[in-house]
Design goal:
The chain has one domain. It contains three helices and no strands.
Amino acid sequence: MDDIKKAVIKSSKISFYRRFMNNIKLNRDTKLSITISIAIILCILAYAFLPFNEMSFIYNEF
């Protein structure tokens, strides 16, 4: 049952994003740049707040 709830929540989030992007009256390139910008921001936030213990060798090089 929990898997079904998670799938419904995930699909509703995706459909919300699609509805949001379809309602914005912008051309395709602008929508693509907004999507890429959001993805980059999420990657930066994940890198900043998630512990990456296996990447400690980067700091030991310097």
